[in-house]
From TrEMBL:
Compartment list: Cell membrane
PANTHER family, alphabetized: BLL4140 PROTEIN (PTHR43227)
Record family assignment: Belongs to the binding-protein-dependent transport system permease family.
GO annotation, biological process: transmembrane transport
Membrane-topology descriptor: Multi-pass membrane protein
Coiled-coil features, chain-numbered ranges: none
Naturally occurring in which organism (per UniProt): Cohnella zeiphila
Taxonomy of the source species: Bacteria, Bacillati, Bacillota, Bacilli, Bacillales
Protein's UniProt name: Sugar ABC transporter permease
Gene3D superfamilies, alphabetized: MetI-like
The entry's keywords: Cell membrane, Membrane, Transmembrane, Transmembrane helix, Transport
InterPro entries associated with the record: MetI-like (IPR000515), MetI-like_sf (IPR035906), UgpAE/MalFG_permease (IPR050809)
Amino acid sequence: MSVKGGKTGPEAATAESPLRKGPTDAVLRASIWKRIHSHRNLYFLFIPVFAYFVLFKYWPILLAWVVAFKDLQLGSGVFRSEWIGWQNFKDIFYSPDIPNVIRNTVEISLLRLAVGFLPPIILAILFHDMATRRLKKWLQTFVYIPHFFSWVIVYGVVFGFFSVGFGFVNNVLSGLGMERHEFLLDSAWFRPILIGSALWKEIGWSTIIYLAALATVDAQLYEAAVIDGAGPLKRMRHITIPSILSVVTFVLCLSLGSLLSAGGEQILLFYNDAVFQTADVIDTWVYREGLARLQFSLATAVGLFQSVIGLGLVIGSNFVAKRLSGRGIW
C-alpha cells in the first residue's frame, strides 16, 4: 500500500503519527487541585493535626534556635531580646563543672545502654516462644505495669528497699548480723541503683517493638526447623534473631542518639549532696544553672547542643550499621 511521499508500512505510520507528549505542568497542577478538591473533607480534618504540629512541635524548635543565640529577658520577649551570638555556648564550655557533667552523662548513658539493651530482646523472645497464652498475658501485664509508674513512685519503691532505717535490704543485712549500709548516700551504689530501677521500670515496655517484629515471622519457618531437628537455641540463632535484626539496629541507632540524655528526671529525684560528683549530668546542670537561676538562653543552648550531637550520632551510627550489616534506619 502506497502513501503520499512514497513511504509505506510502519515508516508511513511513524511519519504521520505525532510524537507522544506527557502532561504539561498546567495539566498536572489542575489534576492535583482536582484531587485535593475531591478529597477536601479529609484535608479539612487534617488542618487541626497540621496546626498542632506547627504550633507545638516546629515553632518551638525555631524559637529554641533563636533563643540559644540571645540573652533572653522575660520582659522583652524572644525577638526583642539582645542578640549575643555564641556567648551562651562559650559560657557553657567555660564552666568548670562541664567536664565532670559531660563525663557523668556519657558514662551513665553508656551504662543504661549496656545494661538495658539486651534484656528486652531476650524477654521478648521468651514471651514469643511461650506456649501457654494465659500465662504469657499475665506475665506481660506484670512487666508492663512499672512503665506507668512515675519516677516519684519508683523512688519510693527504691527507698523502701534501700533505706538505712527500715529498708528491706538493710533489714535482711541486720538479720544476718551484718551492719546496715547507707546505700542511697554511697556514690559507689548510686549508679547500680539508678540503672537497676530504670531497667525494672522499662524492660517490659521495651519488649513491645520486638514482639511486634516477631509477630511478622512466618510460623512455617519454625515448623520446618523443628522437623529438621533444630532445637530452641538453633531456631533462635537462625530464625528469630535474623528476623528482628533490622528492628534491633533501628533501636540501637536511636538509643545512641540519646547519649547526652542520661535521664534527668530520674536523677533529679535520686541524687543528693553525698553523690553529687557522681550523679551530676547535663540535665541536672541545666535545671540548676538554667532554670533555677532563670538563665533560659543558657538552658536552651545546652538543649540545642544535645540535639545537634544526638542527630550526628544517629546519622553516624546509621552509616556504620549499613556498612557493617547492610541494615540501617534508612
